[in-house]
Amino acid sequence: MLLNCHYFSKVLNHNTEINVIIPTPEGKEQITEQGTGKRYEYEKGLPVVYLLHGAYGDCSSWIRFSNIERYAQTHNIVAVAASVENSLYQDMVHGNQYFTYMTEELPSYITTLFPVSKKREDTYIAGFSMGGYGAWYLGLSHPERYSKIAGMSAAMDIDGLAKGCLDGTIDGPFPWKDAFADPNSLAGTDKDIFELYRRCKEKGIVPELYQACGTADFLYQMNLDAKERLIKMGAEITYSETSGAMHNWDYWDKEINKILDWMIG
Questions:
Q1: Low-confidence spans in the chain with pLDDT less than 70
Q2: What is the pLDDT of residue 171?
């Protein structure tokens, strides 16, 4: 069941749109008279995955370009997709407070209105490209809320990406000076995935981590470097690499199904 919701966000101070997928009791893509295997688990709350879009996208990206509705049905999981423009999921210095919206207001809205579990062990976050960074950034910023984090083709090194975009060696639509107070100095801050992981480890609460990238992706080397750096810091990462896969939906659609297997398994 796919629900398209429009409502007023107090954090964003304007109407916003989200897509919510709720599995139906039958648990099958096609309903027949036999073998439907009805599942009624709404009262205890279903697991939920927050799906983050990439640059240039919005909450419709997952619905339009992937088979996420069928995958959510098969895995019996609620899927939520919201829109954050090209904000890199930040509480922007000049702009909307998307970090607060994604980590505070949206989960409260979802768990209040839909049959979703509020337990950490049932709450996951995943994304691709900008949303891959966003999933790690939001998840590691609030490790007490998310039990599993997955990033596909993720912009793992926000400091390196910012420097490359600002000096013109990397193309990107990101409003760096609106999103960050000092986009030239993001390493070691609470915007930096590596620093956030260090803080999680220090606190003794680290979500399970999944990192995926194709070998033909332009962010492949960044992902390799990030994996090596995190492992040296003591991180345990489920790593998925697909030969020849590029930065596109052909890859992300297949990978998100594997990620849901990992999350629910």
A1: 26-38, 40
A2: 87
pLDDT at 262: 98
Kind and range of the H or E run holding 161 = helix 158-166
CA dist 87 and 175 (Å) reads: 7
Q: Report yes or no: 68 and 23 within 8 Å, Cβ to Cβ.
A: no
Which residue pairs, CB below 8 angstroms and at least 24 apart, start in 34-42? 39/76, 41/76, 42/115
For residues 118 and 111, the answer to whether their CB atoms sit within 8 Å is yes
The DSSP line for 32-66 is -SS-------TTT-B-EEEEE--TT--TTHHHHHS
pLDDT at 142: 98
Rounded Cα distance, 131 and 67, in Å: 18
CB 107 within 8 A of CB 145: yes
What residues pair up with 237 in beta bridges, in sequence order?
Answer: 209
pTM for the structure as a whole: 0.95
In 40-109, beta strands by DSSP E? 48-52, 78-82
Tokens of 1: 């069941």
Q: What is the pLDDT of residue 265?
A: 81
